[in-house]
Design a protein that fits this description.
This protein is an alpha/beta fold. The chain has one domain: NAD(P)-binding Rossmann-like Domain (Rossmann fold), CATH 3.40.50. The protein has 9 helices and 7 strands, in the order βαβαβαβαβααβαααβ. It has a 7-stranded parallel beta sheet with strand order 3-2-1-4-5-6-7, with helices on both faces. Helix 2 links the parallel strand 2 and strand 3. Helix 1 packs across helix 9 and helix 3 packs parallel to helix 4. The protein is globular. The structure holds NADP nicotinamide-adenine-dinucleotide phosphate. The site of NADP nicotinamide-adenine-dinucleotide phosphate has 29 residues, from helix 1, strand 2 and helix 7.
């Protein structure tokens, strides 16, 4: 029998990350995921994954804290022996216009979105390199490609993720590890739920497909990039945005 594969999804408790975890579980992977909020229903998540056939390891760990990340990866290796796919999904926004943005707002977003991606990737690739196999998918955003007023911190973090992804793809290709980024447009999750209705209306008008995307649609793309079906794709940024940025 073929050995079961494992996926590590950062920030897998809600939104896109949760859909990604469920999609991989459905397709036969065991799942490692982390979160930060004390409100997270770990038992509920464990059950949802179990119902899809997956064993799971669900731990509280901040992606910007190297020690906490190392602990997750160590426990994951002890439990599953390997990590085949890494999805760097955890991310936050702290929107403000440039003139009103504090250094704290700028630093916090860069620390979690960009440095967190670095910390987790470094901790996981150590084991992928030993196996000479792996796929990494990083969550960028269309605003990392095209910019967005009121999000200079977030856009910078997501543009940084693109450079990071391409460098890692070049560095690790010889070890049979692929790295790609996905750049979602506006996806209906808690992150976009907070936007005022007028802003949402304006967003719909900018999207050729005239609607927000769903977390499930993003999960399908991420699953493809983690699977062998994409074995010749590395170092790419794939937009999933209803045609918003062409
Ligand atoms: P979301 O619904 O706000 O969920 C964010 C997830 O990240 C939660 O699981 C949260 O955990 C976790 N998280 C936040 N800070 C963390 C930290 N320091 N350490 C570990 N986990 C942390 O977000 P989403 O909309 O699903 O977005 C997921 C990713 O896609 C993000 O990187 C986002 O930038 C990107 N993206 C989203 C959109 C969109 O329109 N939604 C568009 C483009 C890109 P808790 O539940 O514990 O808080």
């Amino acid at each position: 029998m073929e050995e079961k594969k494992t996926v590590f999804v950062t920030g897998g408790s809600r939104g896109i990350g949760k859909e990604v975890a469920l999609k991989f579980a459905e397709d036969g992977y065991d799942v490692i995921l982390n979160y930060v909020s004390d409100k997270t229903d770990v038992d509920g998540l464990t059950k949802e994954l179990k119902d899809k056939g997956a064993e799971s390891l669900i731990l509280k760990a901040d992606v910007s804290n190297a020690e906490e990340v190392e602990n997750v990866v160590k426990q994951a290796i002890e439990k599953f022996g390997k990590i085949d796919v890494l999805v760097n999904n955890a991310g936050i926004t702290k929107d403000n216009l440039l003139m009103r943005m504090s250094e704290e707002e700028f630093d916090k977003v860069l620390e979690i979105n960009l440095k967190g991606t670095f910390i987790v990737t470094k901790a996981v690739t150590k084991y992928m390199m030993k196996k000479r196999q792996g796929a990494i998918i990083n969550l960028s955003s269309v605003v990392g490609v095209a910019g967005n007023a009121g999000q200079c911190n977030y856009s910078a973090s997501k543009a940084g993720i693109i450079g990071f992804t391409k460098s890692v793809a070049k560095e690790l290709a010889s070890r049979n590890i692929r790295a790609n980024a996905v750049a979602p447009g506006f996806i209906a999750t808690d992150m976009t739920q907070v936007l005022p209705d007028a802003v949402k209306e304006n967003i719909h008008n900018q999207i050729p497909l005239k609607r927000m995307g769903t977390a499930k649609e993003v999960a399908e793309l991420i699953y493809f990039l983690g699977s062998d079906a994409s074995s010749y794709i590395t170092g790419q940024v794939i937009n999933i945005d209803g045609g918003m940025v062409m």
